[in-house]
Amino acid sequence: MSKALIERRLRELKEYIDETLERIDLTSLHPLMEAPVRYMLRTGGKRLRPLICLLSAELVGGERERAVKPFLALELIHNGTLIHDDIIDEDETRRGRPSVHIAYGVKRGILAGDILLSLGLHHASETGDPRIVEWLSETASKMVQGVALQTHYRRRILSEEEYLEIAYLKSGSLFEASAALGALIGGGGDEEVKRLADFGRCFGVAYQIRDDVQGILNGDEALNDLVNGDVTLPLIYALQSPTLTEMDRGKLLRAYEEGRPIEVGEVRRIYTETNALSKSVEKMRLYAEGCIDALKDFNPSPPLECLLHLVERYYLNLEV
What we know:
With 320 residues, the protein is mainly alpha-helical. It is 76% helix and 1% strand. It has helices at 3-22, 31-41, 48-59, 68-89, 100-104, 106-125, 130-152, 160-185, 190-218, 220-228, 233-240, 246-258, 264-273, 276-294, 302-316, and strands spanning 93-94, 97-98. Strand 1 and strand 2 form a beta hairpin. Helix 4 (68-89) packs parallel to helix 7 (130-152) and helix 14 (276-294) runs antiparallel to helix 15. The longest helix is centred in the middle third of the chain and has 29 residues, at 190-218. The mean pLDDT is 93.
């Protein structure tokens, strides 16, 4: 397929996902809790996880409709953890709108996140496949542990290995589940499920690194991460760089460890001069290559082209 056809196919799938989420039955909820849950589901997003779930199901020969319950379970659990993340991090906005806990209060926000998690497991159980329930319950546990570790290590200097562990738990594990569940519901064999799980894991870790890099390029996010004490891969690489001056080290550590103000331009300059930014991009692309390697034995098909296009769009074409 041409890139134009692939993009159109991905747009159509995203619209299908958005429409399915809009039609989700929340009549079992009291209006007090339905409002914040619906509000969160309407905040939008790229819908990459359900996209990967659908495409993985199609890649192994399954029908798109069979993957609806798994991708709903994934997206509901994902959004539930996002509400809790925003409360823990005290983030006041989510995708350009007030966070749920800002719009509805912290207590209703916590409960809305809990409801989304339970609704996700409910949709997983409706697949009738205990493997899917097991995957999702383990993934939810990993995500919570990732948030716990990130919070525990706030304002502490981590190694690259510790950072990558958190990146896997927080991000990679959900993408891993997205691809694996699509393969399972699509009727894929054990080897196909394993390869697609590997694809999702690499995609998710690369996505976390990309988020770090984009934060630097966009400015404000990099500053927020640094001053809030949230470790990023560029920070780790900058502090490890032999070219980092003592003056610049002091600037980074005062911002990261003490929350002192620092100019966005200074952060970008330091990360550029120490090659921390370029080194982070290299690591991201290494994981992107892992995505491609995981898909190499699948026969050519439209869903394969779409998955490879997502890797190219998000990781291989990122300019710094």
